[in-house]
Here is the input.
Amino acid sequence: MWSDVQQRQTQAEVPAMDSSNPVAAPSHKDPAMRDFLKIEQLSKAYQKDKPVFADVSFGLDKGEFVCIIGHSGCGKTTILNVLAGLDTATSGYVYMDGREVSGPSLERGVVFQSHALMPWLSVRKNIAFAVESRWPDWSPAEVQEQVEKYVSMVGLSHAIDKKPSQLSGGMKQRVGIARAFAIQPKMLLLDEPFGALDALTRGTIQDELMTIVRQTQQTVFMITHDVDEAILLADRILLMSNGAEGADGYKPGGIAEVVTNTLPRERTRAGLHHLDGYYDLRNHIVDFLVSRAVAH
Ligand SMILES: Nc1ncnc2c1ncn2[C@@H]1O[C@H](COP(=O)(O)OP(=O)(O)OP(=O)(O)O)[C@@H](O)[C@H]1O
Ligand SMILES: [Mg+2]
Here is the structure.
């Protein structure tokens, strides 16, 4: 029903973008919106003949939110780092907006699994540094306005002049999220961005993220271990298997299945479990993680 292997579901099923409705799905009819990010035949081997993953191909349309789920060590962060241009694949290609990704760029905002803030700079200066790099011509007032807007978005206005060492792990993670959003990148790459947050903050920031992403038609690739988070946020969910030794020798990990989320796009956290199809979708993903997530 909502699942297919390596192929995307018929695009005709996805409603066209309606500018009057901020939660409408992105239009897949416009060819320029298709495969905004394109990944072809990616593999990564730290050990010769035993790639962590191989034959990884998928695309993200402009404005699409795609989550990837898989067990620890299957290679999710490695894929995200290759998409960010921070790591190189052993083979394969990544294209964004028609150009090959060959290094880091301010066109892609990254939130790392462990927050990567400059410890000697305050929250304000950490984010201002990124904003100034993105828009070198902006006046100090314009930079400050942008910084304050995004710090407020993650609820940290009271801590804007603190250093990372004075913040909790969750607060540091929120600074990382604000920094990624503040440069208004063409693409957001999020590596378990809410992993260190308490449930309440996590929910609030998920809602904020969803609102901003829908309104700005941001394209997002996000790693999560949380099935409900993926169902809430993602248009499609990539299920990734771990590489493993089997009877026929070693088999690398890869994208085992692509699940299309057919729940209404204007879904909310509170209402998710009341939606028709929610439990089927959830059970399908959990079953994958429990019994099919190891390559065989
Ligand atoms: N620099 C490296 N040298 C050797 N092996 C590495 C290196 N970096 C990662 N690996 C291995 O590659 C595999 C994939 O790592 P990666 O960090 O991408 O996993 P992940 O899916 O993000 O896991 P997690 O969910 O725990 O974050 C792991 O088995 C890891 O041990
Ligand atoms: Mg990881």
The radius of gyration is 19 Å. The CA atoms of residues 272 and 278 lie 7 Å apart. The first helix runs from residue 76 to 84.
